[in-house]
């Protein structure tokens, strides 16, 4: 019987898109016969910001660097948790209330690592991935308060 | 030497464009490059404490020296997700 590779980073799906995200496609992407769990996180557009009615959001990103950082998150969760496959997709552009801005799906043999990796992935994404959100209200627009990415890592020692 | 400079979010709105090319002296650091734009757009100054810099798509210290052809970005606090 053909062995299906379970922990292959080459199968990770990392995308930045401008069209609606289809969660089912991502959950099916990570799902395999060796999995006992697929955990997912659906980040969606809320109709208010601290009680102020939101009309819609616009996301912009530093796309090549955002992709690098999303791949780093994949590497980090593979190091920390016993997971199989990862899909992380973030959408940019104008998003209406209720639409999905980010979707993460992670498969694993057991639910614990799947849940934990999913939580770690979204928390880290919100800290280090260079994407910005502008909130549009009836009477104006503001860039959402963000998080300052952590201090730069210490310079790597010369390898030679 | 020339470097590419990228602006995002409120910085892009202040500067009025997403991308510029800048001519800088050899030995200049990221901080010097930011100072150049701050002179032209004083409204940038209050944002400096909340910004991080990147060099060639990796976070970089402000003291990092620049090299010809670098892609530098000044990144406001991130708010994806």
What does this 3D model show about the protein?
The complex is a heterodimer of chains A (160) and B (81). By secondary structure, chain A is an alpha+beta fold. Chain A has one domain: Aldehyde Oxidoreductase, domain 3 (Alpha-Beta Complex), CATH 3.90.1170.40. Helix content of chain A is 28%, strand content 35%. In chain A, the strands form 2 sheets. In chain A, strands 3, 4, 6, 8 and 9 form a 5-stranded antiparallel sheet that branches. A 4-stranded mixed sheet of chain A has the order 1-5-7-2, sandwiched between helices. Chain A starts with 12 loop residues before the first strand and ends in a 17-residue tail after the last strand. Chain B has one domain (2-75): Ubiquitin-like (UB roll) (Roll), CATH 3.10.20. Chain B has 2 helices and 5 strands. In chain B, strands 2-1-5-3-4 form a 5-stranded mixed sheet. In chain B, a hairpin with a 2-residue loop joins strand 3 and strand 4 (58-60). The chains are: A alpha+beta (160), B alpha+beta (81). Chains A and B meet through strand 4, helix 2, helix 3 and strand 8 of A and helix 1 and strand 4 of B.
Task: List its salient traits.
heterodimer; A: 160 residues; alpha+beta; Aldehyde Oxidoreductase, domain 3; five-stranded antiparallel sheet; four-stranded mixed sheet; 3 helices; 28% helix; globular; B: 81 residues; Ubiquitin-like (UB roll); five-stranded mixed sheet; 2 helices; 28% strand
Q: Helicity of chain A, in percent?
A: 25-40%
CATH class of chain B: Alpha Beta
Terminal Cα span of chain B? 37 Å
Portion in beta strands of chain B: 25-35%
What gyration radius of chain A follows from the Cα positions, in whole Å? 17 Å
CATH architecture descriptor of chain A: Alpha-Beta Complex
